[in-house]
Each structure stands twice: as C-alpha cells, then as structure tokens.
Amino acid sequence: MPRQFVKSQKGTDQLIYKGFIYLLEKRKPGITIWRCVEYENSKCRGRVHTNHENVIFDNENHNHTARIGVAKAKEAMNEIKTNARNWRDTPQAIVADTVQTMPDYVAVRMRYMIRTINRTRKADGGHPTSPRNLIDLHLPAAYTVTAKNDNFLL
Fold this sequence. Notes:
CATH topology of the largest domain: N-terminal domain of TfIIb
CATH architecture of the largest domain: Single Sheet
Structural class: alpha+beta
Strand order of the largest sheet: 1-2-3-4-5-6
Number of domains: 2
Oligomer: single chain
Order of helices and strands: EEEEHEEHHHH
Strand content: 15-25%
C-alpha cells in the first residue's frame, strides 16, 4: 500500500497510509514513529514505523475505521495549495483541474477551496498585482531573474 506525506493546517508532516492519518511521534536513528491522529480524541493505539523509504511496521491496532474520504480530501487540499503557489491560474481553474480527477465522496468534503487558494497565495507573499500604468509597475526581485539567474526584462 503506498504511503503519502501531506501537511497539516499547522504545517507539520502527516503520513497517510491505508486510509489512516498519522502524526509524527518521534524520530530515532534510522526509524520514524508515527501515531494515529485519533490518539488524542479516542486513545487510538494505531502506530506505523518507517525508515527512509518504506513502512517497516504497522500494528493496525485502531479503534475506529479508516477515513479514506478525509485522507483523500487532505491529499487534494495539499495538491491545491501546491498548485496555488506554483501556478498563476485563477483559483477557479485550479479547483476545476483538481476536482475533475477526484471521486465524488472526496469532493463533498472539499469546502472553501477558492478561499484556501487565496489565503495560500497571500501567506506565500502572493503574486504581483497587475499594474494600471508603468509607474505602478514594481517587480519583486524573484520576478526579475530567470531560472538560470539571467536578468529578465531589466
């Protein structure tokens, strides 16, 4: 079963494995221990141990069912946030691109996606606004060089 890492609302890493979501509990040399996110609410004993590449232990001792819809919604929301940072498309275009590939049971859990895109862009510094004339044209340093660090337009 593939594993995937996503970011929580606070920006910490979370592991999604077999429909369960895990938080980082501790790191040891060569091993990372993850605990189920339901530990605080319902004392779930689910744990996963990973090394750099693979899941090496999964006790599957959960006291609740897997929430595949929630896990898939987290994956989709992380994809939307990444696209919002990297693309200059409109929020509606980003949402349409993401929603067309997700199942209906995931789309139901996705609310306020356009607002999330706008907040992500604002927190990331945002893209420059469209100027009305040359006096209003102020470009951040990141927009004045190419990927090869050559001057662009200036």
